Amino acid sequence: MSAASCLLTEDQFLCSICLDVFTDPVSIPCGHNFCKTCITQHWDINVPQKCPNCKEVFYRRPEMRVNTFISEMAAHSSEQQVSKPGEVPCDDCAGTKLKALKSCLVCLASYCETHLEPHLTMSGLKRHQLIDPVENLEDRMCTKHDKLLELFCKTDQMCVCMLCTVLDHQGHSVVPLKEGYKRKKAELGKTDAEIQQMIQKRRLKIEEMKRSVELSNKDADREIAAGVQVFSALKESVERSQAELIDTIKEKQRETEKQAEGFIKELEQEISELEKRSSEVEQLSQSEDHLHLLQSFPSLNAAPPTKDWTGVSVHPPSYEGTVVRAVNQLEETLSKQMKKVELKRVQQYAVDLTLDPNTAHPSLILSDNGKQVNCGDVKKKLPDNPERFNYHSIVLSKQSFSSGRFYYEVQVKEKTKWDLGVASESINRKGKITPSPQNGYWTICLRNKNEYKAPAGPSVSLSLKCRPEKVGVFVDYEEGLVSFYDVDAAALIYSFTGCCFTQKLYPYFSPCVNDGGKNSAPLIISPVSHRIYLNDD
Predict the structure, then answer these.
(1) Residue 11 — very low, low, confident or very high, per pLDDT cuts 50/70/90?
(2) Are 62 and 104 within 8 A, CB to CB?
(3) Which one, of 369, 362, 499, lies nearest residue 436 by Cα?
């Protein structure tokens, strides 16, 4: 069948009606062949029945017989695919080029299944090197020596022929193409693994960025809601202050009007009395009764009792400073509200902390729930593990933070000394310690009842209006911010800004020494109540 197929062109296996390879080929009496479906549909439409090729007329639909030979040949032909764009065609096919199955590096040609058969059966050709089909086989020849490129020079990292190794690459490390191929393929595998790892890292980074955007959206929505609440409250405060200002001015105006109305009423009453006397005087003056006039004159001659209005006047009220005082009061109100808003904003990052007994100085006493610590008079015998402070009365929390924001509150009521803040993981925990950002500490402290300081290197003295009973600590890791708040006053105490955090941060607590019982009150990690609201008094 292979030999026969070599003598036939693909056109001989095409139906002249559908112009495709025969499907169920049948022969009609004139000897021509068609697909069974094609000729049947053709005769269903065209009457009388004719052969589409030779036009022979059949007055009765002739019997169609299956052409076994063409059927087998068509099936075999269809198995060998016609070369498509991008595929390597057979160099020996005449007319329609079939898809090549192999390329010969000796013949420098590519062959379809049929034309490949000699390389598989003939002894002389069986020794030729066959590879998967490739185009431009001439590129596999050395352009300088016109020999097959069958070696790989590791020194110059290039493919060479046998003559190249003797003439141009003498003494170089040369290996067969197959060995060079294996090594480079292994390198490609390693490279691909690295690329896949890079891809995976970037996909993870994309997911991280998407999560960041999602968190940013949530933060934005939360800030918008908080902003709307704040500005609504500010608007209400402004409107309330405006209404109070208008009421104050109107009240002054009402008092002025009331005073003027009282004076006017009094004046009108006097006028009425005077007009009455004037009428009596006029009437008496027209009397012709001498005795009556003389007897009535004494009582009418005296003026009726009246008030001296010379120094009486109505002065318009002074509004000088009314607006200024109202604005100043509004500013004070807004300032208080903004402090409450700021504290409320950071309180949303509240975390639940517990003290770590493995870090506590031996003189410290921790509560069972890990929420309270005070300094005792007795130094307990405890293992001096690397995490434990052995000189200062310090304890850290179990929880650490290496990103994001966190906030916690500590009750410092009735204490005369204390230290609060955060510390880096690598801080020195043995011997004398000097807290400062340079040493990994961001803290504030109380000394001698009313001396508040921020050890910022140098230390900064803090002036507070009142002694805080509860201190809030807020940290924004990425922003490099550590802020301390007087929770009850909703006031900012101090902020470390521009910090560069590179390690885990641990909340830091020091109740300081007992001081003979004067400083025996504990530091208490308090639950955050979120009780700060706008317009609270």
Answers:
(1) low
(2) no
(3) 499
Looking at the DSSP bridge assignments, the partners of residue 411 are 470, 524
Q: Answer yes or no: are the C-beta atoms of 410 and 420 closer than 8 Å.
A: yes
Place of tokens 């070369």: 83
CA dist., res. 394 & res. 377, Å (int):
15
Q: Give the pLDDT band (50/70/90) at residue 6.
A: very low
Task: List strands edge to edge, sheet with 130-131.
Answer: 109-111, 102-104, 130-131
DSSP collapsed to 3 states, 155-183: CCCEEECHHHHHHCCCCCCEEEHHHHHHH
Q: Kindly list the strands in the beta sheet with 491-496, ordered across the sheet, starting from the edge strand earlier in the chain.
A: 364-366, 372-375, 523-526, 405-411, 470-476, 481-486, 491-496
3-state secondary structure of 449: coil
Residue type for position 360: A
Amino acid at 194: E
Report helix, strand or coil for 200.
Answer: helix
Q: What is the pLDDT of residue 3?
A: 39
SS3 sequence of 509-535: EECCCCCCCCCCCCEEEECCCCCCCCC
Read off the pLDDT of residues 191-234 as tens digits, 9 standing for 90 and up.
Answer: 999 999 999 999 999 999 999 899 889 888 988 887 787 788 77
Contact 494, 484 (CB under 8 A): yes
pTM of the model: 0.51
pLDDT top residue among 77 and 528? 528
Distance from first CA to last CA of the chain, Å, rounded? 104
Instruction: Check residues 80 and 93 and name the one with the higher pLDDT.
Output: 93
* 3-state DSSP assignment of residue 260: helix
Q: What is the pLDDT of residue 312?
A: 87
Contacts of 273 (CB under 8 A, 6+ apart): 304, 306
Among residues 451, 440, 458, the alpha carbon closest in space to that of 504 is found at 440
For residue 401, what are its two tokens?
């933070």
- How far apart (Å, rounded) are the C-alpha atoms in residues 331 and 238? 10
Closest CA to 393 of 411, 421, 374: 374
Q: 259: which 2 tokens?
A: 């005073």
The residues near 306 (Cβ < 8 Å, ≥ 6 apart) are 270, 273, 274
Structure tokens at 348: 């949303």
Look at residues 303, 298, 395, 307 and name the one whose alpha carbon lies nearest to residue 354.
Answer: 395
* Region 114-134 average pLDDT: 88
- CA neighbours closer than 13 Å in the CB half-sphere of residue 348: 12
Q: Are residues 22 and 15 in contact, defined by beta-carbon separation less than 8 angstroms?
A: yes
